[in-house]
Amino acid sequence: MKRTIAFGGLVATAGLLAAGLAVPAQAASDVASDALATNGIAAYSVAAYWKANNAANLIGATPYNVETKAVAKHLSKGGPAPDSKPGIVPAIGDEKKTAAKSKNVNLPKTTGKVFFTGADNKPHWCSATSVQAAYHNLVATAGHCVYDTESNKATLDNWVFIPGYYQGKTPWGIYVGKTAYTHYDYDVYEDGDRDYAFVTVYNGLSFLHDGVVRPYRDNPGGWKEVSAETFAKFPMWFKAVQSGYWCHEGNKYYVWAFVDAGRLGDNVGGQGLAYNQKIGQPVFVFGYPSGSHPDGNYAYTGKTLKWSYGKTFAATAPAIKGEELQGVKSSFTGEGALGSSWLLKYNNGRRLGYLNGVTIGVSDTDGNDRFDTSISPYFDGETYGVYGAAKNNWSGSIAVPFESPALH
User: Fold this and answer.
1) Rounded distance between C-alpha atoms, residue 398 and residue 402, angstroms
2) Rounded to an integer, what is the distance from CA 325 to the centroid of its chain?
3) From start to end of 143-195, where are the E strands?
4) Count of Cβ atoms closer than 10 Å to residue 235 Cβ
5) What 3-state class would DSSP assign to 267?
6) Contact 138, 200 (CB under 8 A)
7) What InterPro entries has UniProt attached to this entry (predicted)?
8) How far apart are CA 152 and CA 391, in angstroms?
9) Cα dihedral 261, 263, 269, 275 sign
């Protein structure tokens, strides 16, 4: 189904909102889920796609710039309202602690980039973050960094999360997406108020292989034998000799065995989640902005993690049926910043806080040709419901495509 997110008519108002009294509830029909890599072979192939040929696809990926600019022309008294009592989910390792203020800004290990191929079949990326989950395997980002807004396909292809990514390096491994969760209203009605997604990921993979073909006889320790039937299930590009991830000796097929890097949250932690919070609280925004301001100034390269800081304010964007958005003053440019994490009560010592938003667009609100505002859906009880549908699902390991039925 085609999803079109065309920002326009951004409306922003400052003010505080009181919390409601209802208990957060979410009907199962309000949550949409879509498979990304449905089995071990598919997931293994996705990871190999990004690391083949010395990570050429990772290095060559460009920031996703689909419909990120929000036009601000007038003010109005719209904005988000809590649908129940405020609530929080503590971060991984922070369950019995409280946040404290610090003057230093230590960047979170949880933040990284999600990579995928778009409707143009070219590699792109957005910002994202690891969040708390029962199996330490959950990533949060903007909905249109997961769901395909350009074509009729449900989700974007070859979806992976890489925390701490830098110029082809994957310091904590690469995490292939398994299942994406979003709100039904975003999946079907393209509702900007629900432009967020939570994605379960498989265990990470560490790469000892650089995509260079090395026959089994020259390096038997790195290869695992699979049947001809299993090998036939890999995609065509993988079975090309130059892919470097398979070889055969006689009638035997061998596939390179990656190293299991473990669960995402065990390696980098996971932010907590906050919902139905009062507008007007300060948040840190962490992401990888790239591209230029309208005046042509390139303030960010997208290569390194950046942050901004400010108080949230209520916002609406009628063009996308966005009546419950929040904004924050930020100079982040739109390309690459999509999916940036908004962290409430961020503790610099533990580098943890509560995810309270994700960037879905940027705006030049004063007309000086410089972006000065980022916007996000307001996280309410329905957001928590989508999160709740995603947080208890196991993913598992994809390091070696054995003949196990679980991997087929």
Assistant:
1) 9
2) 19
3) 157-163, 175-183
4) 14
5) helix
6) yes
7) Peptidase_S1_PA (IPR009003), Peptidase_S1_PA_chymotrypsin (IPR043504)
8) 27
9) positive
Cβ atoms of residues 276 and 379 within 8 Å: yes
DSSP state at residue 104: S
Domain with CATH 2.40.10.120 in the chain: 11-203+261-390
CB 326 within 8 A of CB 376: yes
Determine the longest span between alpha carbons in the chain, in angstroms. 73
Cα distances (angstroms) measured from residue 120 to each of 151, 156, 183, 268: 9, 11, 25, 32
Q: How far apart are CA 47 and CA 55, in angstroms?
A: 10
Element (H or E) spanning 381, and its range?
Answer: helix 381-390
pLDDT of residue 99: 43
Q: Give the residue among 165, 129, 107 at the shortest CA–CA distance from 308.
A: 107
Residue 293: pLDDT over 80: yes
Paired with 223 in beta bridges are 256
pLDDT value of position 75: 31
- Weakest-pLDDT range from 82-91, 186-195, 249-258: 82-91
Residue 155 is classified by DSSP as B
Mean pLDDT over 26-47 rounds to: 84
To the nearest whole number, what is the mean pLDDT of the chain? 82
pTM, to two decimals: 0.85
Are the C-beta atoms of 164 and 268 separated by less than 8 Å? Answer: yes
DSSP state at residue 48:
H
Q: Could you give the C-alpha distances from 224 to 37, 140, 149, 228, 246, in angstroms and in order?
A: 21, 34, 39, 13, 9
Q: Select from 202, 182, 203 the least CA-distant residue to 194.
A: 182
b/e per residue 223-232 (b: at least 16 CB within 10 A): beebeeebbe
Structure tokens at 128: 């994202």
CATH code reported for the domain at 11-203+261-390: 2.40.10.120
Alpha-carbon distance of 167 to 160, in angstroms, equals 15
